[in-house]
Amino acid sequence: MLGQYPGGAAPDRVGMPQEGKAYCQQVLAKFCPCCHDQALVLEDVWTRRVALKQLVAEIREKQKLAWDSYEELKQLQASIAIAV
């Protein structure tokens, strides 16, 4: 089937040394151009996915800090209201 890897799964090259990645790309380009293109796209998608996960984690952390600050502000306002 077009674009399918032997064994059904795309090769996992995350964490592979750069030389190994380059060799895989050369082999795929020579013997299976469609697989080579798909592998490059999958690698790009994986890289972007990791970056997106990191961005989401940062946003969640900032959101939690903002919520905590809001809660502290409410408590401070309540304390001021009681004191007045």
Key descriptive features of the protein:
84 residues, mainly alpha, 77% helix, 0% strand, disordered N terminus
How would you describe this structure to a colleague?
The chain has 2 helices and no strands. With 84 residues, the chain is mainly α. It has a domain of 51 residues.
Following the backbone from N to C, one meets helices and strands in this order, namely HH
Mean pLDDT: 80
Query: In DSSP terms, counting alpha (H) and pi (I) runs of 4 or more, how many helices?
Result: 2
Distance between the termini: 76 Å
- Shape call: rod-shaped
Secondary structure: helix percent: over 70%
Outline of this structure?
The protein is mainly α and 84 residues long. It is 77% helix and 0% strand.
List the helices and strands and how they pair.
Blueprint: H1 18-31, H2 33-83
Helix pairs in contact: 1-2
